[in-house]
């Protein structure tokens, strides 16, 4: 149930992170954090219920929206790792870059390579991954077929896992343009669905008299 955001770059031992936005209960190494705080490689970030954090890494020109009930390790362990998602959901945003240095996200079952895109990725307790692409293209290299990449374009989604190869489908029409357009940065819960308003009484029916009848 782990997803790691990787950058294929050498010689970077420490990565600096900045909390641009914090909503409600967000802890850095079990201590409540505030906007403007900085973090380093190896730090742990946890969000509570209905909580949210926007974390930026200027070095890698990347931002991560961390949604509610999510556990994250920053640059945890392996060389080149920017971020490890242990549980929950994030929205990754990468600036466009030049050259041949792709930025890769490692999930249980596949690698996701990008060069400037926006996508949402979520890993469940069984290690099954759901990917939704909002901008650009993500190249998915499954462990089951590493020599045959699958390209997921904007407006498409895919599910995959350790024993399940990726299959691309159109994104449902009711999903919308992505978390940040639906208030991900403005709503602590990441812009999730809101409950319907309480049901009131139905308005009375219109009068049934003949037209022109006045009493």
Could you describe the 3D structure shown?
- The chain has 215 residues and is mostly beta strands.
- The protein has a single domain, classed as Jelly Rolls (Sandwich).
- It is 0% helix and 47% strand.
- It has no helices and 18 strands.
- The protein has strands at residues 3-7, 16-23, 26-28, 31-32, 38-40, 44-47, 52-57, 62-66, 71-74, 81-94, 103-107, 110-114, 118-123, 129-135, 137-142, 150-153, 156-161, 164-170.
- It has an 18-stranded antiparallel sheet that branches.
- A hairpin with a 2-residue loop joins β17 (156-161) and β18.
- It is globular.
- The termini are far apart.
- Residues 6-11, 180-203 and 210-215 have low confidence and may be disordered.
Task: Please give the structural blueprint.
Elements: E1 3-7, E2 16-23, E3 26-28, E4 31-32, E5 38-40, E6 44-47, E7 52-57, E8 62-66, E9 71-74, E10 81-94, E11 103-107, E12 110-114, E13 118-123, E14 129-135, E15 137-142, E16 150-153, E17 156-161, E18 164-170
Antiparallel strand pairs: 1-10, 1-11, 2-5, 2-7, 3-4, 3-6, 6-9, 7-8, 8-10, 9-10, 10-13, 11-12, 12-15, 13-14, 14-17, 15-16, 17-18
